[in-house]
From TrEMBL:
Origin superkingdom: Eukaryota
Pfam families xrefs: PPR_1
Protein keywords: Repeat
Species of the source: Brassica oleracea var. oleracea
Protein name: Pentacotripeptide-repeat region of PRORP domain-containing protein
UniProt KW Magnesium keyword: no
Ranges for the PPR repeats: 30-64
Matches recorded under InterPro entries: PPR_domain-containing, PPR_rpt, TPR-like_helical_dom_sf
Keyword Repeat: yes
Length: 72
């Protein structure tokens, strides 16, 4: 859905949906979803938002890895 919003130049709707997904503890966006948001921000010239999304991606990835290591 986020990809479709971005393709239709509906970035505010994509942001809203993305924020909803990120707020859920049981579900996290996958890497392509983060990339889609980053690309949309860059296309709109919103580099600071793209950087913020990169940082969110890194945080989510590190959290995922840390949880996997603790389970082992």
């Amino acid at each position: 859905m986020i990809t479709r919003f971005c393709e239709q130049d509906l970035l505010s709707e994509a942001e809203h949906f993305f924020a909803e997904i990120c707020s859920k503890k049981s579900f996290r966006p996958d890497v392509p979803t983060y990339r889609t948001m980053m690309d949309a921000y860059v296309k709109k010239g919103r580099v600071s938002d793209a950087v913020k999304t990169v940082n969110q991606t890194l945080d989510a990835s590190l959290t995922y890895i840390a949880k996997k290591v603790l389970v082992m």
